[in-house]
Amino acid sequence: MTRDSMFSYPKQDVVAGIVVFLVALPLCLGIAIACGVPPISGLVAGIVGGLVVPAISRSPLSVSGPAAGLTSIVLGEVSRLGGLEPFLTAVIIAGVLQFLFGVLKSGRFAALVPSAVIKGMLAAIGITIIWKQLPVAFGVSGGLLDIPANLHPGAIAITVVSLAILYGIKRTPLGKITFLSPALLVVVIASAMAQAFAGSATWGLTDAQFVRVPLGGLSALAGAVPRPDFAAFARADVWVAAATIAIVASIETLLSLQAVDRLDPLRRTSPPDRELLAQGAANTVSGFLGGLPLTAVIVRSGANVSAGGRQRLSAIVHGLLLLVAVVAMGPVLNMIPLACLAAVLVQVGLNLCKPSLFNTQWKLGLTQLLPFAITIAAVLATDLLKGVIVGIVVGIGFVLFQNSRGAVVTSREPNGAMLVRFRRDGTFLSKPGILATLAAIPNGSEVRIDGTGEYIDHDVKEMIATFLEEAPRREIVAHVHGIDLTMAAAGGGH
User: Fold this and answer.
1) How many separate helices (H) and strands (E) can be counted in the chain?
2) Are residues 349 and 413 in the same domain?
3) Residues linked to residue 422 through DSSP beta bridges, in sequence order
4) Distance between CA 30 and CA 343 in Å, rounded?
5) Would 396 be classed as within a structural domain?
6) According to the model, what pLDDT value does residue 431 have?
7) What's the CATH number where 425 sits?
8) 25, 153, 301, 333: which has the fewest Cβ within 10 Å?
């Protein structure tokens, strides 16, 4: 058996799979609830991510499931499309599009999205998750404005204890136990608290404040899982939603893939296009079975690495355990209060939009800060895809601005002549800055234009030819070095 086989490290991967299951279970439930869909849809996505993706993917350590990064998309598109059923159709189409991305070997193009835009997208997602979960954390069924008048002391107590565990466990001896999931510990303690509050008129939670998954085994599960609306395949808005899901899910998957590869102790590299094939197949299956869209997820993948995972078997083990939980542990899952899952998601949201991220972007300067901030504002004001497009346009604008200046530098040579030297490639993007430099050369000067070793495109060559044609009128003596002007016509050939 070769060491790159799925079953090369059975002992390590079974243990890691159990750990990942303990991390994934509350996240699958919480993300589904944050998306405003039945919890079973999150569990279905987790199961599909654990069973379908590893069969196709060649990423040894990546683990897939419903992602916090898609929360705002699911929330918006379910409402816009008129329900969960047409949205599931969009998930099926998104999977097909992702599969085509893989076939076309487009994984490399994710690197074209500016870093500031990606960070802004993730920060906006974090902000969205937090504001959507705060009412749940306070035991309120409405929005933020309903919190003051409808506070529930039992839910608040569970939220406070949950957050204390999530942020405090690392400072205790329990934080050194690798297989102990803080989120699962939160679920256990919060469920115990909810049972203790059950007899109190003030502190007791209502049925609506607990997780609800179908009971009765596979038959009940099959009857309760939502189904896609196949008639929605003919709707243009469904295809737009599918494109949004496919693009954002692909970007998030490829970013997670890069991050996990850096964590791999065996220093392996995952093929991105193969991963897109796997994610596409899984999303098509997930949508067909009533599940949320899924991506490779860094939280679960990181837990896999920390627990000693070595191959894709760990992801399969985690998927099988999620399936067992859905089929056989419904009564236990229905004892979980929503407030503790809200606390888990608030922590996820804060990790995505932590203050240090804003501070770093500030220190990097306006060229990074403005695309970052504008992406956040655009995502919050519109939706994820439009916000990212706005961010990319702003990022391109900054690139154009930077390239329009600084392509050439001027200095004085020992004989007093001016030297205009290209310090990077001269392209049409640099024309405004180069034109301003040539226009600023004093009449009656001697100037040497040096492009040695740099690429100078035809637009810039024509501009230099125009300058040379006008130089005698300005009594300028001009010399050109390292630039072939043979085919360049003054005035752009007009």
Assistant:
1) 20, 6
2) no
3) 408
4) 9
5) no
6) 85
7) 3.30.750.24
8) 153
Residues 160 and 97 reside in one and the same domain: yes
User: Is 380 a member of any domain?
Assistant: no
- 170 lies in the same domain as 85: yes
**Rounded to an integer, what distance in angstroms lies between the CA atom of residue 42 and that of residue 61?**
21
Cα separation, 53 vs 63, whole angstroms: 8
Taking only the tens place, the pLDDT of each residue in 363-415 is 988 888 989 999 999 988 887 677 878 888 888 787 777 766 678 889 999 88
Q: What is the DSSP string of 120-144?
A: HHHHHHHHHHHHHHHHHHTT-SS-G
- Apex 43 CA angle, 40 and 46, nearest 5: 155
> Tokens at residue 413, please?
């040579």
Burial 391-403 (b: 16+ CB within 10 A, else e): bbebbeebeeeeb
How many domains does the chain fold into? 2
Helix (H, G, I), strand (E, B) or coil at 481: strand
Condensed to tens digits (0 to 9), the pLDDT of residues 99-153 reads: 999 999 987 776 677 888 878 887 887 888 888 889 999 999 877 888 888 899 9
In a domain, 375, yes or no: no
Residues in the chain: 494
For residues 315-326, give the mean pLDDT. 93
- Same domain for 200 and 335, yes or no, is yes
Q: Which secondary-structure segment (H or E) carries 41? A: helix 39-51
Mean of per-residue pLDDT scores for the chain? 88
Residue 18 lies in a domain: yes
**Whether residue 304 sits in one domain with residue 421:** no
Which tops the pLDDT comparison, 347 or 86? 86
Is residue 333 located within the same domain as residue 413? no
| 154-203 residue pLDDT tens | 999 999 999 999 999 888 887 777 667 788 788 899 999 999 999 898 99
Contact 56, 96 (CB under 8 A): no
69-73, 220-224, 300-304 — which is least confidently predicted?
A: 220-224
Tokens linked to 311? 């191959």
Q: Where does a domain end: 353, 369, 391? A: 353
- Kindly indicate the confidence band of residue 494, based on its pLDDT and cuts at 50, 70 and 90: very low
| Structural domain boundaries, residue 446 | 408-493
Q: How many Cα atoms sit within 13 Å of 217 on the Cβ side?
A: 1
| Claim to verify: residue 327 and residue 436 sit in the same structural domain | no
The reply to whether 94 and 173 lie within a common domain is yes
Could you tell me which residues come within 8 angstroms of residue 363 by beta carbon, excluding any fewer than 6 positions away?
none
Domain boundary among 353, 374, 394: 353
Tens-place pLDDT, residues 428-443: 878 888 888 999 999 9
